[in-house]
Amino acid sequence: MKTVLIYDSKYGTTEKVAASIAEKLMETNEVECFSLKKNPNPDISSFEVVILGTPVYAGQPSKKMKAFCKKNEPVLLEKKIGLFICGMEPYREKREKELKEAFPVALQEKAHVVAFLGGAFLFEQMNFFERLIIRKIAKTNTTVQRILWDDVNDFILKILNLKSYVL
Fold first, then answer.
1. Confidence band for 42, pLDDT divided at 50, 70 and 90
2. φ, ψ of residue 67 in degrees (nearest 5)
């Protein structure tokens, strides 16, 4: 299945997760990967499967991803869809809320796979204000990586099983 993975990433964690997903999918599928920083509106018309990934900061998804989804929603609704977010929210209820707020309702209802895949606090890449907020809210002052690799692998397996789904 011809697949496209489109993501946005501020510090590189969502990019790292997206690259891992794309690499694994490339073993059995034709996959293209686009960063919204480099290509804010890739053409998705020729793809059967579209995977969207966004970081969530302070409960908010990337503005670039929101704009991409809004602009391309009619075309996206014709595709098989996988959605994921990367973030550091420790509580399941709040993670689910972040997932629901990250993408338009119509895309969530259409999506075959939706997942929270963990994240990271990369202190060396944050500015002073960001470090100050993370110290206060998360009670940490060092880099913390919590990518949920088992969940990433589950996400990949579900995407690989999409060929059994009917649009």
1. very high
2. -65, -40
- Which letter does DSSP use for residue 25 in this model? H
pLDDT, position 132: 65
pTM: 0.87
Cα end-to-end distance, the chain, whole Å: 13
Structure tokens at 73: 């929603």
User: Which element (helix H / strand E) includes 122?
Assistant: none
Q: Please give the domain boundaries of the chain with CATH numbers for all domains.
A: 2-120+148-164 (3.40.50.360)
Buried b (16+ CB within 10 A) or exposed e, 130-155: beeebeeeeeeeeeeeebbeeebeeb
Block residue for tokens 């206060």: 136
Interaxial angle between packed helices 149-160 and 13-25, expressed in degrees from 0 to 180 and rounded to the nearest 10: 40
Residues 77-90: tens digit of each pLDDT: 999 999 999 988 88
Q: Give the amino acid at 14.
A: T
Q: Which amino acid is it at 76?
A: L
Pair 39, 68: CB distance under 8 Å: no
Lowest-confidence pick of 61-65, 81-85, 131-135: 131-135
